[in-house]
Design brief:
The complex is a heterodimer of chains A (527) and B (335). Chain A is α+β, with helices and mostly antiparallel strands and 527 residues long. Chain A is built from 19 helices and 19 strands. The radius of gyration of chain A is 24 Å and the shape is globular. The N terminus of chain A is likely disordered. Chain B is mainly α and 335 residues long. The longest helix of chain B has 38 residues. Classes of the chains: A alpha+beta (527), B mainly alpha (335). At the A-B interface, α1, α5, α10, α16 and β16 of A face α3, α4, α6, α8 and α13 of B.
Chain lengths: 527, 335
């Protein structure tokens, strides 16, 4: 089936629209868990729900981690950083479906509803669809937000329990998508509250048409969108779990865009004149975290020496098969605040060996933990551990590789007395450096997400100061300084950031690789 | 015959209870706490963890949990998926018709080719056709499904463009699902070309999924036929001057069918297992992929419910096979 014909006829089948109506087919990698983004945490779910169907008060500018106005035209922080007042956009329409036609535009009630259902355990929608509100919980919102008030129909005020600058970026996250309170009430009255999740209504560029589990999701462009309408009339997700099959479908013209190619196919795709290959560093980092509370790893010089013994380029070549970039900082280069002035520790086994000897470390044997699962920041932890084992052997350090089932791995690696260095990584949530530096390296994170169990006061002071400042320039400077301290103290060996590849038909125009990992089709057109 | 059927049915109940217990225990003995796996690298606080434990009912004693599950099953309630928060029963029935349609097609393909191939090989024992057929059957049996599927896709969909790469029907056709069987739904939709598209989408997955059963059936038919062809009554039939077609087709084949039907019954399990890979490759929205995903996510209700449903289906098919024995061989039903 040739795509041109497919595109034209699909549009007719879907909407009975004119013949020049066009369709974009995206070969997605999996099924969404549902369509209410606040209920879930998977990127696949957000691709199918929050990006096409919904908007948020603030949005990430596609292709960057910058926060721009969305359903709120402006936001103002009080001087003490405790109150954030959002001025809402007027004239924004919700979608309609067979069972619901909105009688009013988007207003403050929808904002209050969208957040209070997650925050207030007595809210009628709190328990619907097994609501666990993982992201709202995970970002610490229940404690952070002490109240949400409606000032008038188009003004909402959030009061925080403590100053926290990343709050602004949180408001652009998927869980903060705005759903329709009117729709929710109508569905509750009809006895089908779960439809908020299964038959979604939002304000976004595409409205939901139909979903067949594990097969296909259909959307049509929202003609009443508050910005320019989407470039295509129909958007279809053809769910295709196998990467080789996605590639074949792209070649056969059965889809226009596909995510997550097999590393082995990347060169052939780049050589194919019909395929346009886009690439960008992912918003993630893979690292080896020492247990900085245990000798000899409590000595920064020992950690530094070990870091110098790791041949990162070999890891990029072998483990990432080229689809990765050596990491020098704990945050990825696509993030604001990245300190590019820092130079990485050179790979130098001789110098490393000398440094270890100078610190009186000889006959060291240690454990390296290898994760049992594949992650974008580490596609093969076992192989990575073997390479590190070989590297450390060259400087006289004997490595034993250990691994556990994933759940066990995650919980045991948190232990303060953990024996060994842990391979792990992180994918950013909100594009704010705080989401990496405070979560993964702050003192509060010990025995939790801070796998290095590292608490270094000069570093801690900087990130706490950055958390409380609402001045972006000042925060940038603080995070840059924090990265200098990190490099000097070396609680981790920073290993790699993955490189995200997006192959697409060269008929596709206007696609931007989004550093936060989402696949967004609002600005995309098809010839 | 009715007594025979009831005896077989009676054996169903203890097996069913055994399966509920095994499916319940199986996922729980796997290491890995579903709550921790769900939280991933992000982790969660101790209070939050306790909240979740309570919410999912893990704070109750295991026996109590099993009893609750069993009571639910008896009332047709398999619980709700931890991940999608939807009833397992609904998810199963949304996906199962796709698996059933594919498995039936694969079985028809395997029987339609395997039976005659086995008979012809047996009749021409030791000749070129027999050797060629049995070598191909061995290759077919040993074929890694994953590799075979990708090879067919690359040749027939990629290079030749004869068949679609994956999916159940072209995306240009859009109609509501009535029966869940795409062949039937596409006919009911009345859209021109929809049925043809559904058939074309079935070709490669049917071949891939049917390959192993085809090889097994061909080999089993051949050896059963060879055994029967050596029997005295066949010699008698030959001596009577019956035509070879009548001897092979009627007298020999009918008696050779018992082991073949057994193999076909057992193949249902193989088909459902093979469906996991086939469905993943061909983006076929069936229960195979659904189950595998659930095991990785430690989605207890889905794994329990899915295993139970699959086991019940395999048991039902084997019950049917037992009944078929009785029809093919009257001696069995009188025992």
């Amino acid at each position: 089936m040739k795509l041109k014909l497919l595109a034209a006829t699909t549009a007719i089948a879907l909407t009975g629209a004119v013949a020049q109506a066009n369709t974009l087919v995206y070969c997605s990698e999996g099924s969404p868990e549902g369509f209410d983004p606040a209920l879930f945490t998977a990127g696949t779910t957000f691709d199918a729900s929050s990006h096409p169907i919904y908007n948020r008060l603030l949005e990430f500018e596609t292709g960057t981690t910058n926060v721009i106005p969305g359903l709120a035209e402006s936001v103002e922080a009080s001087d003490d950083g405790l109150e954030y007042t959002f001025k809402l956009r007027q004239g924004v329409k919700f979608h309609s479906n067979d069972e619901f036609t909105p009688t009013r535009d988007f207003n403050a009630d929808d904002v209050i509803f969208s957040f209070m259902r997650q925050k207030d355990e007595s809210h009628p929608y709190n328990q619907i669809s097994g609501g666990t509100w993982e992201y709202f919980q995970g970002m610490g919102m229940p404690d952070l937000v002490s109240s949400i008030e409606k000032i008038d129909d188009y003004t909402v005020r959030f009061t925080l329990s403590k100053p926290e600058a990343p709050f602004v970026a949180n408001m652009a996250m998927d869980f903060a998508s705005i759903v329709s309170a009117e729709y929710a009430n109508a569905m509750m009255a009809a006895g089908t509250p779960e439809k908020l999740n299964t038959a979604p209504i939002g304000t976004g560029p595409f409205s939901f048409v139909a979903y067949q589990k594990d097969a296909v999701i259909r959307y049509s462009a929202n003609g009443e969108y508050w910005k320019d309408p989407a470039q295509v009339d129909n958007l279809i997700f053809a769910i295709t779990p196998d990467a080789s099959v996605r590639y074949q479908k792209l070649k056969a013209g059965e889809c226009h865009v596909m995510p997550y190619p097999n590393p082995a196919d990347i060169q052939a795709m780049k050589d194919d004149a019909d395929i346009n290959m886009m690439e960008q560093e992912g918003l993630n980092v893979g690292y080896l975290a020492y247990n900085t509370t245990m000798a000899p790893f409590d000595n920064p010089k020992v950690r530094k020496a070990l870091n110098m013994a790791i041949d990162k380029q070999a890891i990029i070549d072998v483990v990432f098969q080229g689809s990765g970039q050596a990491a020098k900082n704990p945050i990825p280069p696509t993030m604001w605040g990245y300190n590019d002035a820092i130079t990485d520790d050179a790979y130098d086994p001789e110098a490393a060996k000398a440094m270890l000897e100078a610190e009186g470390v000889s006959d060291l044997s240690m454990k390296v933990w290898a994760m049992p699962v594949q992650r974008p920041y580490n596609p093969n932890a076992r192989r990575m551990a073997e390479l590190i084992q070989a590297d450390f052997a060259k400087v006289g350090v004997d490595v034993e590789i250990v691994s556990y089932e994933w759940g066990e791995y995650l919980s045991r690696s948190k232990d303060l007395n953990r024996d060994g260095a842990v391979l792990l990584g992180w994918t950013g949530d909100n594009g704010d450096p705080d989401n990496f530096l405070a979560v993964l390296l702050g003192c509060d994170g010990r025995e939790a997400s801070n796998r290095a169990q590292w608490c270094h006061q000069p570093f801690e002071d900087l990130i706490l100061q950055a958390k409380q400042s609402t001045d972006q320039a000042e925060r940038t400077k603080l995070y840059e300084d924090a990265q200098v301290i990190f490099k000097d103290q070396a609680p981790w060996a920073t290993i790699a950031h993955s490189v995200v590849y997006m192959p697409m038909s060269n008929k596709v125009q206007g696609y931007k690789v989004h550093p936060l990992g989402g696949h967004i089709f609002y600005d995309v057109s098809v010839e | 015959m009715i007594g025979y059927f009831l005896t077989r049915l009676g054996m169903f109940i203890p097996t069913f209870l055994g399966v509920t217990l095994i499916s319940f225990m199986f996922i729980r003995v796997l290491p890995g706490d579903p709550i921790i796996v769900m939280a991933g690298e992000r982790g969660m606080t101790e209070e939050r963890y306790q909240e979740m434990v309570e919410k999912l009912g893990f704070d109750k004693p295991v026996l109590q949990q099993y009893w609750d599950y069993l009571v639910g099953v008896m009332q047709g309630d398999l619980g709700e998926s931890f991940v999608t928060k939807k009833p397992v029963w609904d998810e199963f029935f949304a996906l199962f018709p796709a698996t059933l349609e594919l498995s039936l097609c694969a079985m028809i393909f395997a029987v339609a080719l395997g039976l005659p191939a086995g008979v012809i090989a047996a009749v021409n024992r030791g000749k070129f056709f027999d050797r060629a057929l049995m070598s191909s059957a061995l290759i077919g049996y040993s074929m890694p499904i994953f590799w075979w599927a990708l090879l067919l896709i690359i040749v027939f969909s990629g290079n030749l463009g004869w068949t679609p790469v994956s999916g159940r029907i072209d995306l240009l056709y859009y109609f509501p699902s009535v029966t869940g069987f795409m062949l039937i739904d596409s006919l009911l939709s009345g859209q021109e070309g929809a049925f043809g598209s559904a058939v074309r989408h079935l070709i490669l997955p049917t071949i891939v999924l049917g390959t192993i059963p085809l090889a097994v059936i061909a080999r089993q038919t051949r050896s059963a036929m060879l055994e029967v062809l050596g029997e005295d009554y066949i010699r008698t039939a030959r001596a009577k001057g019956l035509s070879p077609t009548r001897i092979n087709g009627l007298h020999a084949l009918r008696n050779a069918l018992i082991p073949v039907v057994t193999v076909i019954g057992l193949s249902v399990g193989t088909l459902l297992a093979g469906a996991i890979l086939t469905e993943t490759i061909f983006s076929w929205p069936g229960i195979g992929k659904w189950m595998v995903d659930s095991i990785f996510r430690r989605d207890y209700p889905v794994v329990q419910g899915g295993l139970l449903m699959i086991a019940v289906i395999v048991m039902l098919v084997n019950l049917l096979v037992d009944v078929l024995y009785g029809i093919i061989n009257p001696k069995i039903r009188r025992r």
